[in-house]
Amino acid sequence: MNVKRKTSVPPRWRSEVERILITDEQLAKRIKILAHEIEKDFRGREMVVVSLLSGTVMFLADLIRQLNLPLRLDFIGVSSYGSGSESGELVFTKELRLDVRNRDVLLVDDILDTGKTLSRVLPKIRALKPRRIKTCVLLNKAARRVEKIQADYVGFEIPDYFVVGYGLDFAERYRNLPFVGVLHPHIYEVFSAK
Ligand code: IMP
Ligand code: MG
To answer: Is 105 part of any domain?
Structure first.
């Protein structure tokens, strides 16, 4: 989907967010289409949606409200040490509680970047013997991929920018922005100088 449309960043965020990459309108429109696709593939069968904390909050809430089929929802907490814009050592902060054996699982994450997160999480879920696992990410930054992995459902293909908003953070901030925006490089330069 085209993500080039110009809309200006609200004044409050202008010094930190360079520009809007995906507007709230574009998000809503695309997520509706994505949900239809998923719904069709799962053919009305109950699924277990497994969502990775915390970047998926907004995407997840919007996506599952468009899914017209029975589902159960659970979370895996995963966080990377190395608090800036680079993903470091992965630590699990919350384990899955629902039983996924013989179930259809939809694994949801905010962004597929190097692929390290999903390639650590997928084997953990596979070990629980679900019937099948499909992966869904809001954003795909293919240029940064290190692991050989791709998602079954992708909201938007994006270039190699560090993005924030709509759940995505930089050092735990900016998750509340209603759009996906490009962070000013000076923000993470300041951060790494600290
Ligand atoms: P990966 O393990 O490198 O694929 O990265 C996945 C995780 O890194 C995501 O779940 C995000 O938490 C984080 N991440 C990667 N790129 C960005 C970005 O541009 N903005 C915010 N978070 C990001
Ligand atoms: Mg994250």
So the answer is: yes
Domain, as residue range, for 79: 24-159
Q: Is residue 150 part of a domain?
A: yes
Q: CA 131, CA 98: separation in Å to the nearest integer?
A: 14
In this structure, the residue with its CA closest to atom 16 of ligand 1 is 113
Does 180 sit in the ligand 1 pocket, CB within 6 Å? Answer: no
Q: Is residue 5 in some structural domain? A: no
Query: In a mutational test of the pocket of ligand 1, which residue from 87, 89, 118, 121 has the highest number of ligand atoms less than 8 Å from its CB?
Result: 87
- 61-90 tens-digit pLDDT: 999 999 999 999 999 999 886 655 665 689
pTM: 0.93
Beta-strand ranges (E) seen in the chain are 17-22, 47-53, 71-80, 90-94, 104-112, 132-140, 153-157, 163-164, 180-183
CATH value at residue 33: 3.40.50.2020
Q: Is residue 9 part of a domain?
A: no
Q: Can the peptide bond before residue 85 be classed as cis, meaning omega within 30 degrees of 0? A: no
Q: Which atom of ligand 1 is nearest to the CA of 161?
A: 19
